[in-house]
Amino acid sequence: MAPRVTQSSTAKAAPSKTVPKKNLAKLPAGKKAAAITAPDYWEQACTELMQQDRILRKLIPRYGTGFLVTRGDAFNTLARAIVGQQISVAAAQAVWNRLVINLEKRVNPAQVLAVSSEHLRSAGLSGRKVEYIRDLASHFHEGRLHAKQWQTMDDESVIRELTDIRGIGRWTAEMFLMFNLIRPNVLPLDDIGLIRAISLNYFSGEPVSRHEMREVGENWAPWRTVATWYMWRSIDPIPVEY
After folding, report:
1. Does the N-terminal peptide bond of residue 184 adopt cis geometry, omega within 30 degrees of 0?
2. CA neighbor of 77 nearest in space, from 176, 151, 148
3. Are 133 and 81 in contact (CB under 8 A)?
4. Sequence-separated (6 or more) residues with CB below 8 Å from residue 242
C-alpha cells in the first residue's frame, strides 16, 4: 500500500498557528520560572513540513504550541531512555519518578554507583535495566566517553560510541540525538510509537514495513526529528521527554 503523503515541496501553505520560541518551565512554588527556548530550527521546520506533507499540515496546528525540550544533561537523557525501553511513556515516567526519589534527587553517575542494585530495583527497574544504568554511570564516572566532543560529531559517530555501552542500542542513541543534542533529522525506525503513528496516520491502521516508514520519512527530510515529535503527539497528547 502506498503512503498517503506527498505534496509538492513548492506548495504554498502557511501554519495557522506559529510555534512560540519560548515557553515557561514548570518549577516548584517559590522558584522563579525559567524560559525554555525551542530549537532554533523548529518554526522553519514546522512551516516546511506543512508545505511538504498533508498529514502534518493538519497535525502541526493541532499541537503547534509545543516543541521538543532538552534537559541538557547527557547522563540523565541516556538514563531516562534506558528506563523507557520497551514500556509506555506513562510507565516510564512513573519508574523515573521513583528512581529520582530513591537517588535523593541526585541523578548522576556518582550517586547511581553509590547505592545498591537492590535500591535501584526498588524503583521498579528490571535487573537488566539496573545493570545497564550502572554500566552507563561507570562509563561517565571513569571518563570513558567523548562527551565533550558529541556536539561536533556527526549523528552516526555519536551512535557508534553510545552503542558500545551495554544496554544502549540504536533506538536509545537516537533518543539521545533528539533530546540531548537536538539533532533535526533523526528518524527512529525502531520506535514503537512512531511505527504506530505512521500506521494510523498514513496507512489507515494497517501494518507498516521499515521500507514504507523510510518512504514516509523521506518526505520529512531534513526535519525528521520534528515530524517524529508530532507523530508521537498524534497518539499521545502528552509530550515525550528524555
Report:
1. no
2. 176
3. no
4. 71, 77, 80, 81, 84, 175, 176, 178, 179, 180
Q: How far apart are CA 92 and CA 82, in angstroms?
A: 9
Walk me through the domains of the chain, giving residue ranges and CATH numbers: 22-69+185-235 (1.10.1670.40), 74-179 (1.10.340.30)
- Cell numbers standing for residue 110: 556518582
- Return the residue matching grid coordinates 529520582: 100
Tens digit of each residue's pLDDT (9 = 90 or more) over 32-80: 444 678 899 999 999 999 999 999 999 999 987 789 888 778 999 999 9
Q: Are strands 22-24 and 35-37 parallel, antiparallel or unpaired?
A: antiparallel
Report which of 204, 201, 185, 182 is spatially closest to residue 193, judged by C-alpha positions: 201
C-alpha cell at 168: 544502549
The tens digit of pLDDT for each residue in 116-172 reads 999 999 999 999 999 999 999 999 999 999 999 999 999 999 999 999 999 999 999
Short-list 112, 94, 166, 159, CA closest to 135: 166
The answer for residues whose C-beta is within 8 angstroms of residue 43's C-beta and 6 or more apart is 18, 19, 21
4 near 58, Cβ under 8 Å? no
Contact 242, 77 (CB under 8 A): yes
What is the distance between the alpha carbons of residues 51 and 12, in angstroms, rounded to a whole number?
6
Reading the block at residue 222, the C-alpha cell is 531534513
Own/partner contacts of 148-152, CB < 8 Å, gap of 24 or more, are: 150/74, 150/181, 151/181
